[in-house]
């Protein structure tokens, strides 16, 4: 079993123009073991993507306190590519578009980055795996020969993130709003892909705004994040409770002093 | 006597002219050399905007050089892939398929052409495309040419397989490399040429290389070149097309030298309906400077010229693309487009992309785009987040950036060679950073 552990994590972003730093994460604690699926829910702007990007190693996020460890060893000093090769994967909320590099060529390079230099994956083995996975995700062959995310629709980009996940097979994956922008059918297809990953050697952290995703990918734990902290952890029923009460309701119940962007929305206004 | 000239602005040693002469040169050729030689000192050096190369030892020729007759092993190993191989002034290999010879195709080294195909060569050598008296560098090339090839494809002959040429500049010792080649496409002929130019050895030497491509009416030539001269070589390239009515040249040039380079790539669209596509990829690394002037001049009505260039800079290098589109009065319906883009990987690199349009006619279509930029950090982060090292991610981004040109290369084997050479150059450049 492998463990990804976040301890008292404080993260700031710097504002280049004003030359100031703003603290986004204010002490996050989280332990994710392989074999487990966790979900994080929380209002907009609360720091969910900041947490994902910081774990992955995005240089724009500055850790001011706390630690992130993989099997007891701190990964904060490692650049993003080393973290990736150590087993982390982030399906990004906003994947980059890169012209001139085909999707397939990129995925092959990513797989080979994890193999000895003199033992790259054979084209046949690669194509076999690729065929299988695009089948699961209902993607067309043509998508793999297109330039990386270039001109992909929002939903196609999300699907492509999951395709990469399935090809790379990391130890831990963070899926940042993989459900946003997906239609109902696409959501089921993507969930099928994600569920194929399930194994005792794979742990997952899903960030989502909607309980619906959790109906397809069942979490062992649900965390609620507000204002840079995890304020409540529970099981699947916590997601249902949120859907009913809204974030403001939960905040008031917990007696937190947090401003929410949409404070004036009446409670119980979920998306159902 | 004075010391050897140390820069492109000093006088030339007359012994150089003697040394350059072929055995039993015909009079017309000796006269051509002599005239160029006499004019050279009075001619100006050509201008390359934003490049100061005047202190480069471009004319610092060796007064006497003993030729090294041995063919380096790495060259011998590649010989099979080429129709023509020369090391310095010696022709090491020359083959022309019998069926082509039977159709009247002429293919030989310059010395042989002077001797055996004088009448033909004389019509095209320095008469249509390049003129000896344009500037000091063309004059010196004309006066001192000692190597090169002549390819003449008669009217209506189509050649499927590319004619491939490997020319090796020998820097195992001080030596002169002054090459002049002429390619003539007869009416409605159709063929491909690949010119590889490379260096063996580490001595500091100048190199001067000219190629004239003359396309007669209705002919179509695909010309590809891969230049990889050594770090200690100061190089001057001049490749020029003279296009007659309804003829076409597709140029694909990889400027992948390791040393300082100035290059002049021109297409003169003389005939109505003539057409040039010019695609260049250049990579500068280390401390080198490469300046590339690419120009297309539309003379003919409805002529079309398109320039597409991509350059990448690493370390402390410099690279300048000057794209010149000239439309001469009377070239009704002419088209001239150009796109020059440069990507810099290092904060110490200096890149420049200058489109220059000189248009003297109204009913034409002309346009240009140019950019000098850096690698997008968001893209790098995304690639690296999948485990690619910074180096591999950079190379992918660069190959992606060069992709528009690379994917247009008409000959697959040239494309593969070009990509392999680019990767090697990038890997070396990255290692040094
Ligand atoms: N690179 C950055 N530079 C400046 N500010 C940033 C940066 N990244 C995040 N922030 C700010 O940090 C706060 C948290 O952003 P984050 O993207 O983590 O929120 P989130 O919880 O993922 O929100 P959403 O649900 O809308 O995706 C926001 O106020 C955001 O503007
Ligand atoms: Mg987010």
UniProtKB/TrEMBL annotation, chain A:
GO terms for molecular function: ATP binding; ATP hydrolysis activity. CDD domains: ABC_FeS_Assembly. Residues 4-252 form the ABC transporter domain. The keyword Iron-sulfur does not apply. The keyword ATP-binding applies. It comes from the Bacteria. Signal peptide: none annotated. This is ABC transporter, ATP-binding protein. Keywords: ATP-binding, Nucleotide-binding. Belongs to the ABC transporter superfamily. Ycf16 family.
């Amino acid at each position: 079993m492998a463990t990804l552990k976040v301890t008292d994590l404080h993260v700031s972003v710097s504002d280049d123009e004003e030359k100031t730093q703003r603290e986004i994460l204010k002490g996050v604690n989280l332990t994710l073991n392989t074999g487990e699926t966790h979900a994080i829910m929380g209002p907009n702007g609360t720091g969910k993507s900041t947490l994902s990007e910081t774990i992955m190693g995005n240089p724009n996020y500055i850790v001011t306190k706390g630690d992130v460890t993989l099997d007891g060893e701190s990964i904060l000093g490692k650049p993003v590519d080393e973290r990736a090769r150590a087993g982390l994967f982030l399906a990004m909320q906003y994947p980059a578009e890169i012209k001139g590099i085909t999707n397939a060529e990129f995925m092959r390079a990513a797989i080979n980055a994890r193999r000895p230099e003199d033992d790259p994956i054979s084209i046949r083995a690669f194509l076999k795996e690729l065929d299988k996975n695009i089948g699961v995700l209902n993607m067309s062959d043509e998508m793999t020969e297109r330039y990386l995310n270039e001109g992909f629709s929002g939903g196609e980009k999300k699907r492509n993130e999951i395709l990469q996940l399935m090809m790379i097979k990391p130890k831990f994956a963070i899926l940042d709003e993989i459900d946003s922008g997906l239609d109902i059918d696409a959501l089921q297809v993507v969930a099928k892909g994600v569920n194929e990953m399930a194994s005792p050697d794979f742990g997952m952290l899903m960030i989502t705004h909607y309980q619906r995703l959790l109906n397809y990918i069942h979490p062992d734990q649900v965390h609620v994040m507000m204002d840079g902290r995890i304020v409540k952890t529970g099981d699947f029923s916590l997601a249902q409770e949120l859907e009913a009460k809204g974030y403001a309701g939960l905040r008031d119940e917990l007696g937190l002093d947090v401003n929410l962007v949409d404070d004036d929305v009446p409670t119980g206004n979920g998306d159902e | 006597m004075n010391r050897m000239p140390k820069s492109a602005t000093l006088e030339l040693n007359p012994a150089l002219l003697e040394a350059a002469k072929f055995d039993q040169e015909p009079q017309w050729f000796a006269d051509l050399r002599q005239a160029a030689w006499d004019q050279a000192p009075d001619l100006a050096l050509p201008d390359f905007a934003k490049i100061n190369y005047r202190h480069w030892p471009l004319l610092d020729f060796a007064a006497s050089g003993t030729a090294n007759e041995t063919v380096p092993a790495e060259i011998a190993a590649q010989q099979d892939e080429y129709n023509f191989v020369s090391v310095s002034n010696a022709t090491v290999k020359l083959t022309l398929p019998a069926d082509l010879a039977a159709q009247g195709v002429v293919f030989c080294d310059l010395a042989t052409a002077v001797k055996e195909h004088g009448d033909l060569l004389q019509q095209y050598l320095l008469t249509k495309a390049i003129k000896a008296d344009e500037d000091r560098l063309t004059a010196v090339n004309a006066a001192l040419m000692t190597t090169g090839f002549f390819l003449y494809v008669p009217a209506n002959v189509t050649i499927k397989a590319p004619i491939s040429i490997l020319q090796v500049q020998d820097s195992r010792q001080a030596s002169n490399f002054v090459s002049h080649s002429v390619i003539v496409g007869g009416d409605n002929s159709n063929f491909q040429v690949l010119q590889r130019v490379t260096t063996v050895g580490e001595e500091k030497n100048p190199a001067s290389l000219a190629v004239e491509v003359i396309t007669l009416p209705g002919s179509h030539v695909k010309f590809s070149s891969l230049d990889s001269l050594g770090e200690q070589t100061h190089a001057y390239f001049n490749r020029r097309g003279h296009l007659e009515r309804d003829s076409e040249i597709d140029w694909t040039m990889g400027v992948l030298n390791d040393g300082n380079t100035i290059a002049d790539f021109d297409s003169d669209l003389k005939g109505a309906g003539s057409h040039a596509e010019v695609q260049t990829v250049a990579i500068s690394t280390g401390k080198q400077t490469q300046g590339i002037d690419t120009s297309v001049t539309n003379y003919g009505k409805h002529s079309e010229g398109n320039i597409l260039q991509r350059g990448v800079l690493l370390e402390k290098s410099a690279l300048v693309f000057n794209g010149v589109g000239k439309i001469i009065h009377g070239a009704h319906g002419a088209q001239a487009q150009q796109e020059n883009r440069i990507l810099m990987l290092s904060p110490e690199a200096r890149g420049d992309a200058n489109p220059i349009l000189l248009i003297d006619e109204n009913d034409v279509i002309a346009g240009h785009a140019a950019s000098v930029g850096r690698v997008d950090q968001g893209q790098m982060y995304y690639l690296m987040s999948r485990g690619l090292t910074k180096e591999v991610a950079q190379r992918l981004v660069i190959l992606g950036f060069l992709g528009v040109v690379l994917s247009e290369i008409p000959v697959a084997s040239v494309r593969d060679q070009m990509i392999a050479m680019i990767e090697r150059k990038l890997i070396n450049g990255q290692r040094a950073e």
